[in-house]
Structure formats: structure tokens, C-alpha cells
Amino acid sequence: MANQSNSLIEWVKHEANVRGVTYEEFIKVTQRLLNNQVLAPDFGPEVEKNIYRLYMSIKDLIDDYFALSGIKVVNRTAPNVVIIYPPNSDAPGLIIDDDPDNAPLRRRIRTLERSFILLARQLFEQKVMQAEVDSDGCVTIPVEEFKIRYTTLFKRQIHSTELGDNLSILRRLRIADYKRSELNQDAILRITPIVQHFTFEHAFKVLEELEDKINEEN
What is the pLDDT of residues 36-79, one digit of tens each? Predict the structure, then answer.
């Protein structure tokens, strides 16, 4: 087993060097993807832009390396985004693998986090249909509106502490951005097009039908 591991490392080092990248840079890219699941240079910090450029220079090597663990790498453009999906996912990014060898990917997305992702997708689509989109393809939603829509749809009040905890998953996946220091009723969520890669269309439709039913009852 040790010999196989050493052989893999030596192969990676050689292939990275052939592409003008060090082994340490290769590790930097893989660790960033394992920890965040997403590389979104158009919506992330400057360090993410640099790591994305590194990924693009060794894309085939990274993809092959992750494929050995059954991890699927998806690279999209407009906007530029790289997403890794754990093995046996039944929905993109929403079910996390339990294999202890994939420790950064081990935690399962909680039900509340899942509902936040679905609601973000619904609000994004509605704003797009209303042509309320900025030059980067993003939409803005007041946090207070997000809370009200959540309560209406899911019949559950969101307390301030769990609001921040569960919005953090949107931030980590680059689905939405906000200023943590200003997370109050006047804060604004900026929802990015990346949300479309984290929900199946049929799940989004179920949520739409639920809201239509609520509107009819009212």
C-alpha cells in the first residue's frame, strides 16, 4: 500500500512539473476544492482567482486525480466555476460522502441548509424572470425578505443565530455573498448564478408548486 501511495505521489509530481506547476501548488488546488467544494473566481476573493488559474493549467491532472476517489469535477463557464461532487450524490453537492478518507467532504448537508439552498434558487429564478439581474448575473435579496419567504414556505421561524449558521453554507458554496458584520434585518444577500448547479430542476419545481398552493390559499 505504501509503495502504491509513493508511486501515485511521484506520478503527480512528475505530471505537475511537466505542466510547469509544483507539487505544492497541486496540493493547494486540491485542498481548496476539498475544503470549499467550489472554485468561483468571479465571486470569490483574490486568492481564489489565483487558485482557479492554477487549476486551469493542470485541469486534466486534477480531474484524473479526483476520479480515482470517485469524485466528479465539473467545470463551467459564464460564470467560471469549478465544483466537485462527492461519490454517490443523489443531488449535486447536497449529499456528502461518508468515506473517512474524504474527511473534508464527510459532513452531510443538514435539512435546514438544504432548504436555504432551494429557497435561494427559487428567489434567484424569480428575480431573473423579472430582469432584476446585475452585470455579473447576480440578484440581490434583503435578508429580511429571505426570512419572511422561508417562514411562509416552510412554516418555521428562523432565529438570528441559526440564520447566520445556515447562511454560511451559501457563502462557502459561493451561492450567496453578504457582509457578516452587517448580518441584520437591513443586510442584503447577493445570490449568484452558481445556485443553479446545486439544485435539481425537479426539486426547484416542487418548491414553486408549494408557493403557488400557498398563494391560492391566501
Answer: 889 999 988 889 999 999 999 999 999 999 988 888 898 888 78
Burial 157-194 (b: 16+ CB within 10 A, else e): ebeeeebeebbebbeebbbbbbeeeebeeebbbbbbbb
Which residue's C-alpha cell is 486568492? 47
Q: Spell out the alpha helix ranges (H) of the chain.
A: 2-18, 23-36, 46-57, 59-67, 111-129, 143-154, 160-172, 201-217
Q: Is the Cβ–Cβ distance between 40 and 81 less than 8 Å?
A: yes
User: Which segments of the chain have a pLDDT < 50?
Assistant: 1, 95-104, 106-107
Looking at residue 104, what is its pLDDT? 47
Give the three cell numbers for residue 59. Answer: 485541469
Query: What one-letter code names the amino acid at 2?
Result: A
Distance CA 103, CA 34 (A): 9
